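Next comes this protein.

***
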Amino acid sequence: MHSEEPQYAVDTRPGQWVEDELGPGFSYTTIARGRDEEGPLSATLVRYLPVEASSPEPPREQKHWRDAMLNLRQGLDRVLAGGPQAGAATEEPTDVVLGMHGWTDYFYNAELARYWAGRGYRFYALDLRRYGRSLRSWQTPGFVTSLTEYDVDIEAALATIREDVGPVGRTLCVAHSTGGLTASLYAHRHPGVFTALILNSPWLEMQGSWLVRNAAAGLLDPLARVRPKARIKLPEVDHYWQSLSNRAHGEWDIHPLWRPRHAFPVTAGWITAVLAGHAEVNRGLDIKAPVLVMTSDRTHLGTSFEPEMLVSDTVIEVETVRQRALKLGHEVAIVRIEAGMHDLFTSAARTRAKAYEAVTRFCDGYVPAP
Protein backbone atom coordinates (compact mmCIF):
# COMPACT_ATOMS: atom_id res chain seq x y z
CA MET A 1 0.00 0.00 0.00
CA HIS A 2 1.06 3.56 -0.63
CA SER A 3 1.75 5.96 2.20
CA GLU A 4 -0.78 8.62 3.14
CA GLU A 5 1.67 11.28 1.86
CA PRO A 6 2.45 10.21 -1.72
CA GLN A 7 5.77 11.30 -3.15
CA TYR A 8 6.94 12.30 -6.60
CA ALA A 9 9.49 9.95 -8.16
CA VAL A 10 13.18 10.84 -7.99
CA ASP A 11 15.22 11.40 -11.15
CA THR A 12 17.96 8.88 -11.86
CA ARG A 13 21.41 9.53 -13.24
CA PRO A 14 21.93 8.83 -16.96
CA GLY A 15 22.08 5.07 -17.47
CA GLN A 16 21.10 4.32 -13.86
CA TRP A 17 18.26 1.89 -13.08
CA VAL A 18 16.79 2.05 -9.58
CA GLU A 19 14.33 -0.21 -7.80
CA ASP A 20 10.73 0.55 -8.62
CA GLU A 21 7.79 0.59 -6.24
CA LEU A 22 6.27 -2.43 -8.04
CA GLY A 23 8.79 -4.64 -6.27
CA PRO A 24 11.31 -7.35 -7.19
CA GLY A 25 12.21 -7.44 -10.87
CA PHE A 26 10.98 -3.90 -11.57
CA SER A 27 13.25 -0.90 -11.99
CA TYR A 28 13.07 2.47 -13.70
CA THR A 29 15.30 5.07 -15.30
CA THR A 30 14.69 8.71 -16.15
CA ILE A 31 15.01 9.58 -19.84
CA ALA A 32 14.59 12.48 -22.27
CA ARG A 33 15.70 15.18 -19.87
CA GLY A 34 15.17 18.74 -21.01
CA ARG A 35 13.34 21.92 -20.09
CA ASP A 36 10.22 23.72 -21.12
CA GLU A 37 8.48 26.85 -19.90
CA GLU A 38 7.56 25.12 -16.61
CA GLY A 39 11.05 23.86 -15.80
CA PRO A 40 12.94 20.52 -16.03
CA LEU A 41 11.10 17.89 -18.06
CA SER A 42 11.57 14.15 -18.34
CA ALA A 43 9.95 10.82 -19.17
CA THR A 44 10.46 7.53 -17.33
CA LEU A 45 11.05 3.99 -18.57
CA VAL A 46 10.06 1.07 -16.33
CA ARG A 47 11.76 -2.30 -16.89
CA TYR A 48 10.80 -5.79 -15.81
CA LEU A 49 13.44 -8.50 -15.38
CA PRO A 50 12.00 -11.72 -13.95
CA VAL A 51 13.75 -12.72 -10.76
CA GLU A 52 14.21 -16.47 -10.33
CA ALA A 53 14.04 -17.48 -6.69
CA SER A 54 16.85 -19.96 -7.17
CA SER A 55 18.97 -17.72 -9.40
CA PRO A 56 18.71 -14.01 -8.61
CA GLU A 57 19.63 -11.57 -11.38
CA PRO A 58 23.30 -10.60 -10.93
CA PRO A 59 24.36 -6.96 -10.79
CA ARG A 60 24.82 -5.38 -14.23
CA GLU A 61 28.63 -5.42 -13.97
CA GLN A 62 28.63 -9.09 -12.92
CA LYS A 63 26.17 -9.95 -15.68
CA HIS A 64 28.41 -8.34 -18.29
CA TRP A 65 31.40 -10.35 -17.00
CA ARG A 66 29.38 -13.57 -17.02
CA ASP A 67 28.09 -12.92 -20.54
CA ALA A 68 31.60 -12.10 -21.79
CA MET A 69 32.94 -15.39 -20.42
CA LEU A 70 29.99 -17.28 -21.91
CA ASN A 71 30.61 -15.68 -25.32
CA LEU A 72 34.31 -16.57 -25.08
CA ARG A 73 33.50 -20.19 -24.23
CA GLN A 74 30.99 -20.41 -27.10
CA GLY A 75 33.54 -18.89 -29.47
CA LEU A 76 36.18 -21.43 -28.45
CA ASP A 77 33.67 -24.23 -28.93
CA ARG A 78 32.94 -23.00 -32.46
CA VAL A 79 36.64 -22.82 -33.31
CA LEU A 80 37.24 -26.35 -32.04
CA ALA A 81 34.22 -27.52 -34.02
CA GLY A 82 35.48 -25.83 -37.19
CA GLY A 83 32.70 -23.19 -37.16
CA PRO A 84 32.93 -19.41 -37.57
CA GLN A 85 35.53 -17.53 -35.55
CA ALA A 86 34.60 -16.03 -32.21
CA GLY A 87 35.02 -12.51 -33.57
CA ALA A 88 32.32 -13.20 -36.14
CA ALA A 89 29.72 -14.10 -33.52
CA THR A 90 26.71 -11.77 -33.32
CA GLU A 91 24.54 -11.16 -30.30
CA GLU A 92 21.07 -12.67 -30.49
CA PRO A 93 18.41 -9.92 -30.86
CA THR A 94 15.99 -9.43 -27.98
CA ASP A 95 12.25 -9.14 -28.60
CA VAL A 96 10.74 -6.25 -26.62
CA VAL A 97 7.38 -4.79 -25.64
CA LEU A 98 6.81 -1.11 -24.95
CA GLY A 99 3.72 -0.27 -22.89
CA MET A 100 1.97 3.13 -23.03
CA HIS A 101 -0.67 4.35 -20.59
CA GLY A 102 -3.72 6.55 -20.97
CA TRP A 103 -5.00 9.84 -19.50
CA THR A 104 -4.43 10.42 -15.78
CA ASP A 105 -2.52 7.15 -15.71
CA TYR A 106 0.86 5.45 -15.37
CA PHE A 107 2.24 1.91 -15.46
CA TYR A 108 1.26 -0.20 -12.45
CA ASN A 109 0.11 -3.54 -13.88
CA ALA A 110 2.79 -6.03 -12.88
CA GLU A 111 0.66 -8.90 -14.18
CA LEU A 112 0.88 -7.47 -17.71
CA ALA A 113 4.67 -7.37 -17.50
CA ARG A 114 4.80 -10.98 -16.32
CA TYR A 115 2.56 -12.10 -19.18
CA TRP A 116 4.97 -10.68 -21.76
CA ALA A 117 8.01 -12.03 -19.97
CA GLY A 118 6.34 -15.43 -20.10
CA ARG A 119 6.11 -15.08 -23.88
CA GLY A 120 9.84 -14.40 -24.10
CA TYR A 121 9.76 -10.62 -24.44
CA ARG A 122 11.69 -8.05 -22.45
CA PHE A 123 8.98 -5.77 -21.08
CA TYR A 124 9.25 -2.00 -20.72
CA ALA A 125 6.61 0.63 -19.98
CA LEU A 126 6.82 4.35 -20.61
CA ASP A 127 5.46 6.95 -18.20
CA LEU A 128 5.14 9.91 -20.56
CA ARG A 129 6.10 13.46 -19.65
CA ARG A 130 3.95 14.93 -16.88
CA TYR A 131 2.49 11.53 -15.97
CA GLY A 132 3.20 9.00 -13.23
CA ARG A 133 6.87 8.69 -12.34
CA SER A 134 7.61 11.58 -14.71
CA LEU A 135 5.23 14.05 -13.03
CA ARG A 136 6.79 16.81 -10.92
CA SER A 137 5.24 19.32 -8.53
CA TRP A 138 5.81 22.31 -10.83
CA GLN A 139 4.11 20.75 -13.85
CA THR A 140 0.62 20.90 -15.30
CA PRO A 141 -0.35 17.19 -15.20
CA GLY A 142 -0.72 15.56 -18.63
CA PHE A 143 -0.35 18.83 -20.53
CA VAL A 144 0.69 18.94 -24.19
CA THR A 145 -0.53 21.01 -27.12
CA SER A 146 0.16 18.30 -29.72
CA LEU A 147 0.38 14.53 -29.44
CA THR A 148 3.53 14.72 -31.58
CA GLU A 149 5.32 16.07 -28.48
CA TYR A 150 5.41 12.48 -27.26
CA ASP A 151 7.60 11.46 -30.22
CA VAL A 152 10.64 12.59 -28.23
CA ASP A 153 9.64 10.41 -25.27
CA ILE A 154 8.95 7.35 -27.44
CA GLU A 155 12.19 7.68 -29.40
CA ALA A 156 14.21 8.21 -26.22
CA ALA A 157 12.57 5.12 -24.70
CA LEU A 158 13.42 3.01 -27.74
CA ALA A 159 17.01 4.28 -27.70
CA THR A 160 17.29 3.44 -23.99
CA ILE A 161 15.95 -0.06 -24.68
CA ARG A 162 18.61 -0.59 -27.36
CA GLU A 163 21.28 0.53 -24.92
CA ASP A 164 19.90 -1.91 -22.35
CA VAL A 165 19.53 -5.06 -24.46
CA GLY A 166 21.73 -4.55 -27.51
CA PRO A 167 20.27 -5.69 -30.83
CA VAL A 168 16.47 -5.50 -30.76
CA GLY A 169 14.30 -8.01 -32.58
CA ARG A 170 10.54 -7.70 -32.76
CA THR A 171 9.17 -4.56 -31.10
CA LEU A 172 5.55 -4.61 -29.97
CA CYS A 173 3.67 -1.60 -28.63
CA VAL A 174 0.89 -2.26 -26.12
CA ALA A 175 -1.07 0.95 -25.58
CA HIS A 176 -4.20 1.92 -23.65
CA SER A 177 -6.84 4.62 -24.22
CA THR A 178 -5.20 7.97 -25.10
CA GLY A 179 -1.93 6.07 -25.30
CA GLY A 180 -3.55 3.95 -28.02
CA LEU A 181 -4.34 7.11 -29.99
CA THR A 182 -0.78 8.40 -29.50
CA ALA A 183 0.79 5.07 -30.49
CA SER A 184 -1.39 4.78 -33.60
CA LEU A 185 -0.44 8.24 -34.82
CA TYR A 186 3.23 7.57 -34.09
CA ALA A 187 3.18 4.25 -35.97
CA HIS A 188 1.51 6.00 -38.92
CA ARG A 189 4.26 8.64 -39.05
CA HIS A 190 7.11 6.19 -38.35
CA PRO A 191 6.54 2.99 -40.36
CA GLY A 192 8.75 0.05 -39.48
CA VAL A 193 9.39 1.00 -35.86
CA PHE A 194 6.78 -1.34 -34.38
CA THR A 195 6.34 -4.93 -35.50
CA ALA A 196 2.74 -4.91 -34.25
CA LEU A 197 0.38 -2.74 -32.20
CA ILE A 198 -1.91 -4.07 -29.48
CA LEU A 199 -4.43 -1.41 -28.53
CA ASN A 200 -6.39 -1.78 -25.30
CA SER A 201 -9.59 0.32 -25.55
CA PRO A 202 -7.91 3.04 -27.63
CA TRP A 203 -9.55 6.45 -27.54
CA LEU A 204 -9.91 6.91 -31.30
CA GLU A 205 -12.98 9.18 -31.33
CA MET A 206 -14.83 11.58 -29.09
CA GLN A 207 -17.97 10.37 -27.35
CA GLY A 208 -20.82 11.29 -29.65
CA SER A 209 -18.65 10.79 -32.74
CA TRP A 210 -17.34 13.38 -35.20
CA LEU A 211 -20.25 15.78 -34.89
CA VAL A 212 -19.47 16.43 -31.22
CA ARG A 213 -15.76 16.57 -32.02
CA ASN A 214 -16.17 19.18 -34.74
CA ALA A 215 -18.41 21.32 -32.55
CA ALA A 216 -16.00 21.09 -29.61
CA ALA A 217 -12.98 21.87 -31.78
CA GLY A 218 -14.67 24.95 -33.19
CA LEU A 219 -15.26 26.28 -29.69
CA LEU A 220 -11.91 25.31 -28.18
CA ASP A 221 -9.39 26.10 -30.93
CA PRO A 222 -9.42 29.90 -30.39
CA LEU A 223 -9.02 29.47 -26.62
CA ALA A 224 -6.23 26.88 -27.03
CA ARG A 225 -4.23 29.24 -29.23
CA VAL A 226 -4.39 32.09 -26.72
CA ARG A 227 -4.57 30.27 -23.36
CA PRO A 228 -3.56 26.62 -23.87
CA LYS A 229 -3.47 25.93 -20.11
CA ALA A 230 -6.94 27.32 -19.48
CA ARG A 231 -8.96 24.72 -17.59
CA ILE A 232 -12.16 23.41 -19.09
CA LYS A 233 -14.82 23.15 -16.41
CA LEU A 234 -16.12 19.59 -16.32
CA PRO A 235 -17.89 17.65 -13.53
CA GLU A 236 -15.49 15.96 -11.14
CA VAL A 237 -16.31 12.25 -11.04
CA ASP A 238 -14.55 9.36 -9.34
CA HIS A 239 -16.40 6.31 -10.67
CA TYR A 240 -13.46 5.10 -12.77
CA TRP A 241 -11.12 5.36 -9.79
CA GLN A 242 -13.64 3.39 -7.73
CA SER A 243 -13.66 0.62 -10.32
CA LEU A 244 -9.83 0.38 -10.19
CA SER A 245 -8.66 1.06 -6.66
CA ASN A 246 -8.47 -1.62 -3.99
CA ARG A 247 -9.56 1.12 -1.62
CA ALA A 248 -12.95 1.04 -3.33
CA HIS A 249 -14.42 -1.65 -5.64
CA GLY A 250 -11.29 -2.56 -7.64
CA GLU A 251 -8.27 -4.73 -6.91
CA TRP A 252 -5.34 -2.50 -7.91
CA ASP A 253 -2.95 -0.69 -5.59
CA ILE A 254 -2.71 2.59 -7.46
CA HIS A 255 -0.59 5.58 -6.52
CA PRO A 256 -2.79 8.39 -5.13
CA LEU A 257 -0.67 11.09 -6.76
CA TRP A 258 -0.06 9.44 -10.14
CA ARG A 259 -3.60 8.02 -10.54
CA PRO A 260 -5.66 10.37 -8.34
CA ARG A 261 -9.25 9.84 -7.38
CA HIS A 262 -10.37 12.56 -9.80
CA ALA A 263 -8.89 12.95 -13.28
CA PHE A 264 -6.31 15.61 -14.06
CA PRO A 265 -7.85 18.99 -14.93
CA VAL A 266 -8.63 19.15 -18.66
CA THR A 267 -6.86 22.04 -20.40
CA ALA A 268 -7.81 23.68 -23.69
CA GLY A 269 -4.45 22.79 -25.24
CA TRP A 270 -4.60 19.13 -24.29
CA ILE A 271 -8.18 18.46 -25.40
CA THR A 272 -7.54 20.30 -28.68
CA ALA A 273 -4.53 18.05 -29.28
CA VAL A 274 -6.67 14.96 -28.68
CA LEU A 275 -9.43 16.22 -30.98
CA ALA A 276 -6.85 16.83 -33.70
CA GLY A 277 -5.68 13.23 -33.26
CA HIS A 278 -9.24 11.96 -33.55
CA ALA A 279 -9.71 13.94 -36.76
CA GLU A 280 -6.53 12.45 -38.21
CA VAL A 281 -7.73 8.92 -37.45
CA ASN A 282 -11.07 9.70 -39.05
CA ARG A 283 -9.30 10.77 -42.25
CA GLY A 284 -7.53 7.40 -42.27
CA LEU A 285 -4.08 6.23 -41.17
CA ASP A 286 -1.65 4.02 -43.05
CA ILE A 287 -0.22 1.76 -40.33
CA LYS A 288 1.48 -1.10 -42.13
CA ALA A 289 2.11 -3.23 -39.04
CA PRO A 290 -0.71 -5.56 -37.92
CA VAL A 291 -2.97 -4.00 -35.29
CA LEU A 292 -5.09 -5.65 -32.61
CA VAL A 293 -7.88 -3.46 -31.23
CA MET A 294 -9.65 -4.75 -28.13
CA THR A 295 -12.65 -3.13 -26.47
CA SER A 296 -15.33 -4.06 -23.99
CA ASP A 297 -18.60 -5.30 -25.42
CA ARG A 298 -20.53 -2.45 -23.84
CA THR A 299 -20.39 1.18 -22.73
CA HIS A 300 -21.93 2.53 -19.54
CA LEU A 301 -21.50 6.28 -19.03
CA GLY A 302 -22.50 8.05 -15.85
CA THR A 303 -21.46 10.57 -13.22
CA SER A 304 -21.48 8.36 -10.13
CA PHE A 305 -20.40 4.81 -9.44
CA GLU A 306 -22.77 1.97 -10.30
CA PRO A 307 -22.02 -1.80 -10.18
CA GLU A 308 -22.53 -1.96 -13.97
CA MET A 309 -19.30 0.04 -14.29
CA LEU A 310 -17.28 -2.99 -13.15
CA VAL A 311 -18.27 -4.82 -16.35
CA SER A 312 -18.45 -1.92 -18.85
CA ASP A 313 -16.30 0.73 -20.47
CA THR A 314 -17.10 4.00 -18.69
CA VAL A 315 -14.86 6.23 -20.83
CA ILE A 316 -15.21 5.52 -24.57
CA GLU A 317 -18.11 4.58 -26.80
CA VAL A 318 -16.98 1.14 -27.88
CA GLU A 319 -19.08 0.90 -31.04
CA THR A 320 -17.72 4.19 -32.34
CA VAL A 321 -14.15 3.18 -31.53
CA ARG A 322 -14.53 -0.16 -33.34
CA GLN A 323 -15.71 1.73 -36.43
CA ARG A 324 -12.71 4.07 -36.27
CA ALA A 325 -10.36 1.13 -35.79
CA LEU A 326 -11.05 0.06 -39.37
CA LYS A 327 -9.31 3.26 -40.52
CA LEU A 328 -6.02 2.54 -38.75
CA GLY A 329 -4.18 0.51 -41.36
CA HIS A 330 -3.80 -2.48 -43.64
CA GLU A 331 -4.49 -5.31 -41.18
CA VAL A 332 -6.67 -4.64 -38.16
CA ALA A 333 -8.17 -7.33 -35.93
CA ILE A 334 -11.02 -6.23 -33.67
CA VAL A 335 -11.98 -8.20 -30.56
CA ARG A 336 -14.82 -7.60 -28.12
CA ILE A 337 -14.10 -8.67 -24.56
CA GLU A 338 -17.28 -9.50 -22.70
CA ALA A 339 -17.74 -7.58 -19.42
CA GLY A 340 -14.50 -5.65 -19.85
CA MET A 341 -13.73 -2.38 -18.09
CA HIS A 342 -12.06 0.51 -19.91
CA ASP A 343 -8.63 -0.93 -19.17
CA LEU A 344 -9.31 -4.51 -20.12
CA PHE A 345 -6.24 -5.74 -18.23
CA THR A 346 -7.65 -4.35 -14.96
CA SER A 347 -11.03 -6.05 -15.32
CA ALA A 348 -12.14 -9.01 -13.19
CA ALA A 349 -9.73 -11.95 -13.37
CA ARG A 350 -11.90 -14.03 -15.72
CA THR A 351 -12.43 -11.11 -18.06
CA ARG A 352 -8.80 -10.11 -18.33
CA ALA A 353 -7.92 -13.76 -18.91
CA LYS A 354 -10.05 -13.49 -22.07
CA ALA A 355 -8.11 -10.38 -23.05
CA TYR A 356 -4.81 -12.21 -22.62
CA GLU A 357 -6.16 -15.10 -24.68
CA ALA A 358 -7.02 -12.68 -27.49
CA VAL A 359 -3.51 -11.23 -27.38
CA THR A 360 -2.02 -14.73 -27.46
CA ARG A 361 -4.07 -15.68 -30.54
CA PHE A 362 -3.06 -12.46 -32.30
CA CYS A 363 0.63 -12.91 -31.53
CA ASP A 364 0.63 -16.59 -32.48
CA GLY A 365 -0.74 -15.58 -35.87
CA TYR A 366 1.06 -12.31 -36.66
CA VAL A 367 4.26 -12.45 -34.59
CA PRO A 368 4.88 -16.14 -33.89
CA ALA A 369 7.87 -17.16 -31.85
CA PRO A 370 10.94 -17.97 -33.96
Summary: Residues 53-81, 83-88 have pLDDT under 50 and may be disordered. The radius of gyration is 21 Å. Residues 63-90 form one domain. The longest strand covers residues 26-36.
